[in-house]
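Subject: Protein entry, chain in single-letter code together with its fold tokens

Area: Proteins and the way their chains fold up in space.

Attached in line: The record itself begins immediately under this heading.
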Amino acid sequence: MNNGTSAGRCGQRPWWLCAGLAVAAIAGSLAARPASAYEVISVTNGGTIEGVVTLSGPRPAAAVITTTKNRDYCGDTIPDPTYSVNAAGDLANVLVYLKGITKGKAGPSEPLSLVNEHCMFSPRVQGAMVGGQIKISSDDPILHNTHPQNAETNATIYNIALPFKGFSVTKPLPANPELIKVKCDAHEWMHAWIMELDHPYYATTDAAGHFTIKDVPPGSYTLAVWHEAAGEKSEPVVVTAAKTTTTKITLAAK
């Protein structure tokens, strides 16, 4: 994330304060949910939700992060990925997920991947399902640590030292849905986000702002999008058997 120098505003407040409010709201919402009642079923007539998330209004000025450590490897500056927007205004790193879905396909069997890569985390934003695992690794020849925390309480989930390139550790994810913020204590500009849900119907927008959620049982749901700075937005969505529902969602920069 930006180190506080971004020119983005939310009213008269700096964007990072608004981002903190958005994080607190979604984290509180996830924490308040009851224990998972999600039921795995065979989905043979599922539909697909496809769409694009765009950024409305003036785009935030391109920002850079000024590094403070390991400059010989990390460089003096790194592009700030908070608002990753293409020429068409499409927004990357937005988590898109369904609310109110209680049954459907099984979750992924492979662990999530979170890589310390050239002094940043990759991916920046991703979803996860309760009961899964995460593989934390480093591609850098410098010391990193990966420190996931509950985004609402700042409680440490674990803190993994990654002393050399190629080092990796696989750990279980928390037992309940929550928004997880990840930091590197050795490099304070490094951040990532993991939204842990009680179902597998989520996706992260790519560089073109595009997302796809497949194998959704037919029905009416709420489709939510979350961005670390622009916040959250929801809309109703109807999924038809073996059909593709398309949508375009707009978020405003803050």
Q: What stands out?
A: The CA atoms of residues 174 and 251 lie 29 Å apart. Confidence is low (pLDDT under 50) at residues 1-12.
